Amino acid sequence: MADDKDVLRDVWFGRIPTSFTLNQDEVTEREAEPYYLLLPRVSYLTLVTDKVKKHFLKVMRAEDVEEMWFEYEGTPLKWHYPIGVLFDLHASNTVLPWSITVHFKNFPDSDLLHCPSSSVVEAHFMSSIKEADALKHKSQVVNDMQKKDHKQLWMGLQNDKFDQFWAMNRKLMEYPTEEGGFRYIPFRIYQTMSDRPFIQRLFRPVSPEGNVHTLGDLMKEMDPAALPNDGEPKRYQVVIHGIEPLLETPLQWLSEHLSHPDNFLHICESHNPPSPVLSSVYISTPPTTTPPLLLSEDLFIGREG
């Protein structure tokens, strides 16, 4: 893969300022103050909210505490979706900090999966990586890894260690030069206007004629309505990691650099126009390495490292 490490780091260290508030129906011994946290876009809610749980347990009785879960404006938040995907899907136009409500009872079994421990998150994460590698390399890379290599990927994500994670994940991003890219691009398209979880189909990074497929080619194939006709204003926003890439961006490059740690390219499609509180700026590098991207500032809010 092209070594655009700055892009990889910017994606990894993207943060979302978040305010956690205890649901008003929870029984407490005294008033519960909100808890503020910079949430990593690439992680999972149940993996980074131990401090949130400890904060609210201080004002609650043990008998009133069941499994913790989160919601935003009445929508339960799926812990198995990356945090950045949840934000882009449900709250991309909200005023920061993102306001999440915390619950300790009335778990919505019909909407959420239970997550009793971090081992459940690990199993989900590794299952996603294996699925992605099946699409990219017929599972050859994952199968050649040892158990300690799988653990390195997981520990890198769990402990927010960029170098530890990418030292191993780089193997999953390689491909023979003569093939021009992965076998298929692992992607999921989430739509705010649809009841189905996401769109996921087989799609190659290069056409049978040898032409490089772009983000626009993918969207045209998966959801033609997402792209405006000539002369029409843009009706939809296509967002990855809080940014709106140019539709001309090669899909292979996006998969290598803007995939989540699970190796999937998570794309959010929304009717909503870009938020007026977030300015946008072009960041360009030589065309032989990084295509120009249209970036919105929320990707870099609270960036660490």
Automatic annotation (TrEMBL):
Residues 11-104 form the Autophagy protein ATG5 UblA domain. Gene3D superfamilies: 3.10.20.620, Autophagy protein Apg5, helix rich domain (1.10.246.190), Phosphatidylinositol 3-kinase Catalytic Subunit, Chain A, domain 1 (3.10.20.90). Coiled coil: none annotated. It is found in: Cytoplasm; Preautophagosomal structure membrane. GO terms for biological process: apoptotic process; autophagosome assembly; autophagy of mitochondrion; cellular response to nitrogen starvation; heart development; immune system process; negative regulation of programmed cell death; nervous system development. GO terms for cellular component: Atg12-Atg5-Atg16 complex; autophagosome; mitochondria-associated endoplasmic reticulum membrane contact site; phagophore; phagophore assembly site membrane. It is a peripheral membrane protein. Forms a conjugate with ATG12. Part of the minor complex composed of 4 sets of ATG12-ATG5 and ATG16L1 (400 kDa); this complex interacts with ATG3 leading to disruption of ATG7 interaction and promotion of ATG8-like proteins lipidation. Forms an 800-kDa complex composed of ATG12-ATG5 and ATG16L2. The ATG12-ATG5 conjugate interacts with RAB33A; this interaction is bridged by ATG16L1 and promotes ATG12-ATG5-ATG16L1 complex recruitment to phagophores. Interacts with TECPR1; the interaction is direct and does not take place when ATG16L1 is associated with the ATG5-ATG12 conjugate. Belongs to the ATG5 family. This is Autophagy protein 5. It comes from Sparus aurata (Gilthead sea bream). The lineage of its organism: Eukaryota, Metazoa, Chordata, Craniata, Vertebrata. The gene is ATG5.
